[in-house]
Amino acid sequence: MNAVVYKGEKEVAVEEVDEPELQHPNDVVVDITTTCICGSDLHMYEGRTDAEPGIVFGHENMGIVEQVGDGVDTLSEGDRVVMPFNVACGFCENCEEGYTGFCTNVNPGFAGGAYGYVAMGPYQGGQAEKLRVPYADYNALKLPKGEEHEDAFSLLADIFPTGWHGTELANLQPGDSVAVFGAGPVGLMAAYSAKIKGASEIFVVDRVPSRLELAEEHCDAKTVNFEEGDPVEQIKDAHGGGVDKGVDAVGYQAIDDDKEGDGAYDPARENPAIVLNQLIQTVRPTGQIGVVGLYVPSDPGAPDEMAAQGRLGIDFGKLFEKGQKFGTGQCNVKDYNRELRDLIIEGRADPSWVVSHRVSLDEAPEMYQRFDDREEGVTKVLLEP
Ligand code: NAD
Ligand code: ZN
């Protein structure tokens, strides 16, 4: 079958790989109908991780159940399903409490598992014609049959729940004001979640005009272009003081705010924590900050650059002075996706506006490059194997 295979820095190819098979009675194999490219894939694509060439990408997958293991009780051939990007067992202490992003069984030695992702376990990705789903009763959410809401449902694998999670980690309440840093697909879903939850005022910070326009149009957000001045000052000027809550949907690959003054916006290699520090300044004392943008561990065994990425210069003193709280980590997708699915089915939410492209799997190499360039108008890209 065809799959999107990582070849090396800034290169993927669509190549023939072995078809997945049932390996355990609890597995199903799914025929993929839609699989999305994610900002998280770009960490590997850009060569910033130790992902080995040859791995099949793809952790945002939906499709039709094609083969069913003998031990699977709740799924049948022909069921339409979407898979949370987390692979989780369902019975460890974390899964039992809903923390499926931190399952302790599926990937020993690392907190949590995922499909097609470096360090996240031996699970092949779904940017391919087929996907093996382990612990399938637990890791597949059933969808109404047919083709309705295909775009919106595909976002249940990651970014809609992850955006929602950002607002949960920030303990966003109706009437709160909130600043969301990053208007990539995840930040846009955080801003949209804030709107659904009844936030009073939503600020969204980025520098890509088409992404900021989406935030304004679909999330009723006030937009802040960080290339036009310090985003902290811009938000405080507009709001009159600190906002109640904040969400980081950027992560360690944040682009700096031109400290060199040369007009060039370089990835903030020296201190990848710029967004965290800006949030500490933007949010009012005792406010809460949800961090869903990805940060990597400071691993002494990792290549120099990666090890340095983990050492963040967070202004902990300011955080302490203001008595703020941080919530962090992988989204526990399963914890939200039944409810978010039902909001879509009932017409109370439709996140499909974030999708800019639906293309065939063959176009993955070109779309990876355009999404990685944060090209104007390229927001969320769905692949159709
Ligand atoms: P993305 O990487 O395209 O989005 C990042 C956005 O941040 C871009 O639009 C970029 O222009 C903007 N940006 C860069 N520097 C900035 C700065 N200093 N201030 C404000 N905005 C800035 O793609 P995405 O899919 O939205 O992913 C965002 C992050 O979320 C990534 O780090 C990704 O790995 C992470 N993620 C985490 C989870 C989770 O479970 N926690 C799930 C999915 C994605
Ligand atoms: Zn993702």
From TrEMBL:
InterPro entries, alphabetically? ADH-like_C, ADH-like_N, ADH_Zn_CS, GroES-like_sf, NAD(P)-bd_dom_sf
Q: Which GO terms describe its biological process?
A: small molecule metabolic process
Gene3D superfamilies recorded = Medium-chain alcohol dehydrogenases, catalytic domain (3.90.180.10), NAD(P)-binding Rossmann-like Domain (3.40.50.720)
Limits of the Alcohol dehydrogenase-like C-terminal domain: 185-254
Going by the UniProt record, its keywords in alphabetical order are: Metal-binding, NAD, Oxidoreductase, Zinc
Which cofactors, by name? Zn(2+)
Which molecular function GO terms apply here?
Answer: adenyl nucleotide binding; anion binding; metal ion binding; oxidoreductase activity, acting on the CH-OH group of donors, NAD or NADP as acceptor
Work out whether the entry's keyword set contains Transmembrane: no
Boundaries of every Alcohol dehydrogenase-like N-terminal domain copy: 25-144
Q: Family per UniProt?
A: Belongs to the zinc-containing alcohol dehydrogenase family.
Q: What is this protein called?
A: Glutathione-independent formaldehyde dehydrogenase
Species for this entry: Halobium palmae
